[in-house]
Design goal:
Layout (H helix, E strand, L loop, with lengths): L4 E7 L5 H15 L6 E6 L8 H11 L4 E5 L2 E4 L3 E3 L3 E7 L4 E3 L8 E5 L6 H4 L5 E5 L11 E3 L2 E2 L4 E7 L1 E8 L2 E3 L4 E7 L2 E5 L2 E2 H8 L15 E6 L3 H7 L2 E10 L4 E4 L8 E7 L1 H19 L5 E6 L5 H4 L4 H9 L5 E5 L3 E5 L2 E5 L3 E8 L2
Parallel strand pairs: 2-3, 8-9, 22-23
Antiparallel strand pairs: 1-6, 2-6, 3-10, 4-5, 4-23, 7-12, 8-12, 9-24, 10-11, 13-26, 14-21, 15-16, 15-21, 16-17, 16-20, 18-19, 18-21, 19-20, 22-26, 24-25
């Protein structure tokens, strides 16, 4: 069942309210609507100090106070992505679709928050979440989220798209350098041994040939992956959480991680890799389409700010692949500072990932 929904992106030299209005007006025109039931509006960080006038302009253009969204490091639609330039991305909803209060069911909750609004008790809910953390390229802020055309002081927003059915998946896209290995010895944040060997030795021996020695480790690209469930299938099925490397310690051959491990857990060394990320996102698209069980009417894509065009060589391959698979699909999203989606039966805050939601209108 097709419903009126469309997106548009607008840009300008300065963060002016008419940019938000232009994005909404173009989206309305594409959807064939004179007014919208609701609007998703994402703005670049240039608007964060004072987004209220842009929100009011968007609401006037849409003819509704149902304007929800946040600022992000950059914004995207099915047409294009935008970084480093003031801009707005809007998705308008008509027909029977609108934004509503989350229910206690399996339909995805669109979840947007600021870094200070991200708490473990909020993330921990039985209902699957889809979204990201508001961010900018430097992590300094300010960060803003809004609902009903107003800034939300608590720094987080939950809403559902009524009149739709949706599915959520995440693509981490890590290149595994080892199989999952049992954590044998830890001390605080220091990982001392994997299996029978010093942790640093295991990592060094697994590195690609173009990384010559421990003192040249590209720590910004290498991470640990802690698996859930069956370790033999965890990497392939994406059942792992990332653990960042803080330092490699040559004296005792240990590795300091950002989160503590427990003996008996399974960890594999992984590396950020564009080709692996692209290949995995194709699989994510296949799985999402199969789980939805119908042709999607719109989509939402939330890539990490460290995964988008800067990672793929000035192209957003996630967006390219999504557009190639569904050429006419309206898509909206932003580049965030953490991505939100389920993992192993619970909601999870991802890093360096892309979370995808596909939605179809219901009768």
């Amino acid at each position: 069942m097709n419903q009126p929904v469309a997106t548009a992106l607008a840009r300008g030299r300065r963060a002016e309210p008419q940019i938000a209005a232009q994005a909404v007006e173009r989206a309305l025109e594409r959807a064939g609507l004179s007014r919208a039931n609701a609007v998703l509006l994402f703005l670049t960080p240039h608007f964060a100090p004072n987004p209220e006038s842009a929100l009011r302009a968007a609401a006037r253009a849409a003819g509704t106070l149902q304007v929800t969204g946040c600022t992000g490091a950059g914004v995207l639609t099915d047409e294009e992505w935008l970084l480093d330039t003031p801009g707005a991305a809007a998705m308008v909803f008509g027909g029977t679709m609108q934004l509503g209060t989350p229910r206690h069911d399996d339909e995805p909750v669109l979840s947007l928050c600021t870094p200070s609004g991200m708490t473990a008790d909020w993330l921990d809910s039985e209902t699957p979440r889809l979204g990201a953390v508001s961010g900018d390229l430097f992590g300094h802020g300010p960060f803003r989220v809004w609902s009903m055309t107003r800034i939300v002081d608590g720094g987080r927003v939950d809403t559902v798209i009524e009149g739709t059915h949706g599915v959520v998946h995440a693509s981490q896209g890590m290149r595994a350098l080892t199989a999952p290995i049992e954590v044998a010895e830890v001390q605080g944040l220091d990982l001392l041994k994997l299996g029978n060997y010093p942790a640093l030795n295991v990592l060094v021996q697994s590195l690609p040939q173009n990384v010559p020695s421990p003192d040249a480790l590209p720590l910004h690209l290498i991470l640990g992956g802690v698996t859930f469930g069956d370790p033999d299938t965890a990497i392939r099925e994406g059942r792992y959480r990332l653990n960042h490397i803080v330092s490699a310690n040559l004296q005792d051959r240990s590795i300091t991680l950002s989160h503590p491990l427990a003996p008996g857990e399974r960890l594999f060394w992984a590396m950020r890799d564009a080709l692996t990320a692209e290949r995995e996102f194709r699989t994510t698209l296949d799985q999402s389409a199969a789980d939805l069980g119908a042709s999607p009417d719109f989509g939402m894509l939330f890539p990490c700010m460290g995964r988008g065009p800067h990672f793929f060589g000035n192209r957003d391959r996630d967006l390219d692949l999504l557009h190639s698979r569904f050429p006419d699909l309206p898509v909206i999203g932003f580049y965030g500072n953490g991505e939100i989606a389920p993992l192993d039966g619970a909601n999870h805050l991802y890093q360096y990932s892309a979370t995808l939601g596909l939605f179809t209108a219901t009768p």
